[in-house]
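note to self: dont lose this again. the chain is below, predicted strucutre after it. 155 aa total, dont forget to put it in the shared folder this time
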Amino acid sequence: MTPAIKQLTHQGIPFTLHEYSHNPNSPSYGLEAVEKMRVQAEFIFKTLIAQIDNAVLVVAIIPVNSTLNLKQLAKAANSKKAHMAKPQDVLRSTGYVLGGVSPIGQKKQLKTFIDSSASQLKNLYVSGGKRGLDIELNPSALYHITRAKWAELTS
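---
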């Protein structure tokens, strides 16, 4: 049981787990989830960790078929610049490895931004805390459990 699943269970938030056999040679964790779970890409979200200009890490949750706009993330975070965090900083801060970073149950609660496209969905999928494990839940539940802000994050 991952920290994400433990936190959701502890807080009584409804969710559904989806597990699939992860291929370590897959070029894209998110697109692999789309293929193996047979879910449209706009419903599966990736969790990205970026560093804003004051060396603070933040979380950006965007659809897997989109690209994070770092300028828009910086603007949402009231910063001048943002760049992707180093993998070792991601692991140290979240407790999760790349490809399995969940926005839920991180070691350190980071300021979180969810792409506003998620607010229109009934359910979405995010990583469950390991490669090959996704959590399906309501976007409002994700918003509340991560104490997120909605923002335009993609180009």
